[in-house]
Every structure is written in C-alpha cells, then in structure tokens.
Amino acid sequence: MTQYLLAVHHADARPDIPPEEWRQSFTDVSAFIEKLRDVGAFVFAGGLLPESATVVRQSGADFVITDGPYTETKEHLGGFWVISAADLDAALEWAKLATVACRLPIEVSPFDERDADELLTELQDEQGAWRSAQ
Amino acid sequence: MTVEAVFRREYGRCVATLIRFLGDIDAAEEAVQDAFTVAVARWPSDGQPPNPGAWIVTTARNRAIDRLRRESVRDERHAQAHHLYGAAAQAAGDDALAPEEETVPDDRLRLIFTCCHPALNQPAQVALTLRLLGGLETPEIARAFLVPEATMAQRIVRAKRKIKNARLPYRVPAEAELPARLQPVLAVVYLIFNEGYAATANSLIRLDLCVEGIRLARVLAELMPDEPEAQGLLALLLLLHARSAARVTADGSLVRLAEQDRRLWDRDLITEGQSIVRACVQRDRPGPYQIQAAINAVHSVAPSFDRTEWRAILTLYDQLYALTPTPVVALNRAVALAEVRGPAAGLAAVDDLRSPGLLDSYYLFYASRADLLRRLGRTTEAAAAYAAARALTANPVERAFLDTQRATLGVSDPAHE
Lengths: 134, 417
Known about the structure:
CATH topology of chain A: Alpha-Beta Plaits
Number of helices of chain A: 3
Helix content of chain A: 25-40%
Number of helices of chain B: 21
Largest interface: A-B, 15 and 12 residues
Radius of gyration of chain B: 25 Å
Number of strands of chain A: 6
Structural class of chain A: alpha+beta
Shape of chain B: elongated
Distance between the termini of chain B: 62 Å
CATH superfamily of chain A: Dimeric alpha+beta barrel
Helix content of chain B: over 70%
Distance between the termini of chain A: 39 Å
Oligomer: heterodimer
Strand content of chain B: under 5%
Strand content of chain A: 25-35%
CATH class of chain A: Alpha Beta
Largest sheet of chain A: 4 strands, antiparallel
Largest sheet of chain B: none
C-alpha cells in the first residue's frame, strides 16, 4: 500500500456556487470520508486557511516573517486527504469520488517513501551524473 | 538471425517479462541488456539457441537473481527496493526460481498499458513505448522526434520515476475500463507511425518509425484479437504504408494520391489490410480507426484517382464525422465531397470550416482550399492559399510541393500583389 495526498487547490475568489450547492458539497465530502474510513483507506484529512498563512524564512542569523502563502499564485492548497491505496489506479478512483464531492479538481501525489539514506545516495548519484555530463 | 535482429524482435517481450519478475523497469532493462551481452559473446561459438527469446529471458532472470543475491548480502535494504511492489513483486519472489513458464503473452500488453497510462503525458507515453517495447535507444528516439538527447533522456527518466513513485499499475485494465484505456495506447502507436509517415524527408530513422508503428500495431492486434479498433489501427497503418514507395519521388518530392503511380503500391500490405477491414465490417462494431482503414481500403482497390468510389468514401467520412466530429475530419470530408459533387461544393464545405481558431493554423486546410480554387480557375486566390499553406509547414518536402503547385498557376508571388 502506498499513501497518496489528494490535494484540493482553492482559488482565492470563491467559485460562484449557490449556498445550497455548498451545503450539499459538505454533505458529500463527509460521505466521501466515511467511505474512506469504511474500507480502511483513510489516513488523515484537513481543510486549510491559506489566506491566513504566514511564511518563515531564515536570512543569515535572522528570520524573515512574511504575511501570506508561499506561492504567489491565485490558487493555494485549501484542503487535503491522505489516503492509502494499492496503486495509482486505486488512488485515481478515490480522486474521482473526491472531485465529485468537493466540486474542485484533485491533485494526486504519492508520498516519498524513501528514507534519508536512500535520498542521499540518490542525490549523490544525480550530482555525479551531472558532473560527468559537464 | 543475428543477435541484432533478435534484439529488435525480442527486446520488448523480454523486458516486459522481466518487469513482471523483478517489479522494476530499470532492473529489468539492465538484466535484459546483460543477457544480450552474454549472447553476443557466446552465440557465435556455441550457436544460437533454438528459442533465442526464451534464452534471453532465462539468462536475464538468472543474472538478475545473482545480482539481487549479491546485493542482498551487501545491502539488505537496497535489494528490497528492487523487489518492489504489489502482486508483481510477490510473483517475482515466487516465480523467479521456477524455470518453467518462459513468457506469458500478456506481458507486453501489460507493459504498453503502463507506458500509455493516462497519468503520463503523451510525449512521455511515446518515448517510453519506443524505449521499452521497441527497444530503441534514447538518442534514436531523440533524433526521431527532433528533440535534444538530454531532453529525451530526462523525459524517459521522469516517466520511469513516476511509474515507480506513484505506483502506476502493471496490468491490463479490466473489461469495463478497457475502452477508455485503449484509446491512448492506440493513439501512441498511430502517432509513432505518423511521425515517420509525415516526414517524407530522406531520413532513414523516420521511415523506421513507420515500421516500428506497424510492429507495435501488430502486437496489439495479436494480443487483443477481440478489440476491433486494435485491428482497425493495424489495417489503417498497413494500407497507408503500402503507398509509401509511391508517395515520394527519387529526388524526395511529395506525390499526392491523385498523381501516384499505383503500380508502386505494395500489394501484399494492401491484401493484408483489406482482409482485416473485411473482418471488421463483418464484426460491425465500427470505430474511428476502422473507418479510416475502410476509407484507405476503398482507395487501395481503385484503378486510378478518377475511378475511385468517391461516394463510398464520402459515406465513410460521414460515419467518421458522426463518431469524431473534428474539423480535420470535416476537411477531409469536404475534399471527398468535391470529388462527388464538384469543386464548388467542396469549396463551400471547406469555407464553412473557416472560423477562427478552428483550422487556421493547419496547413492542409489552406492546401486543400488552394487546390479547389485552382480547379475553379480562381488562380489569384489559389496562389494566396498556397502561400498561406506554405507558411504553416516546416517540412521541406511539403514546402517544395506547395511551391510547385503554386508555380503551375502562372501567377506571380502573391506577396507582391
């Protein structure tokens, strides 16, 4: 089993959807989460408030705090589910249910399951390949 | 058969089988290449084994197992990573040591569905299919698609990484999802063929793409005998390829269907294509590739352009348009209409397609329009349309053709009018 992030990217401006449709969407999303729980595919989920986000950066010995989300795009990560699925096809089936429930596109990403050692080995390989290509 | 020939014929099948054993594309490619290295060293003196493909699979598998054992002694974790995921990895663990079953026919089919998974973009699908099923080297693929080698290498590495990281399944889709999943597979094979077919410019590599496209279409047609569109695609490619000798003159210029010397058409390919089309018609589950094959089958029996069954072709284009109502199909239909009801009717139908964004960057739109205007004696407009078409194609052979056509009008360069 692999864990996948099903991410919902919200536009800053709310989509033009009537209130009763929103209400229905909330019900549908709850039902979707129930379905995930029923088959043991649910790992974690949450909604975010990207307009209230703050970014922290190190700058020399100091820290710089900036108001607002990290990317200067019009769309930000607004909510997500972490699910457990056998393969991408299974994850994509969940994403289809999710997009119907929340009325927004879903981005499906696998979690990086390598540990630090594996990552380091790979980085070294890449740098080696890069250097030999020079 | 040379080792080289065995490589071309068996590479895809061997890699596909090894991926099932090992659950990892890179490890499978490495093992198969190892096995071919052994073959190059041994076959000349030992003689070629009776079933070279099976020999390669067995050798590759043994090599891979040796490698895994060495690595598991050295580094448990690394070997584990090679074992990979899901049922494929399970099967690999159990089957790896069982020497009996050599190749399961479905392996290549699984692999092509992985390579053409909708989660991969089309350039990646094409590159992976040529690399893994066609056994083409990365530089060859890069040259064929006119992109820098590094770009193509990156494209392939990224796609393989996504297959591994996101766990793209290695299986033939279930019946219910097959129609949707088959579509990109057929599209990739058609695109590979077409990339070779559109580039008539004297380049051997690109002609190879046609051959490769047909080879892949044959594999699909063999592995999915009950999918009429897979049959239709093979028939279409055979019938198009049958005309390749007549499409280009010795000096490399393009010859249109109307002017082709039909004696140069390959009768064997035509016979094979026609018999597949007949079987499709009997099956009566039409689809876009089958209809396009049928259109080309009608061309292939015509003794000359003028004596072509244009009514049959028009009817087929009507059917095709009903299934795939694209502007390009409408344009082809208009060209057929001109043969049935005259150039004025054809031109009216072509001009109906003249809305912004529809076909205004498609050179064949202007080329077809130019041809109809020429036939109607509207030479000045025809010359302008040829010029517009010329500006929209980068292919030197097509450009030369359009220049010749425009020259026959006897009109000075429209840019100066």
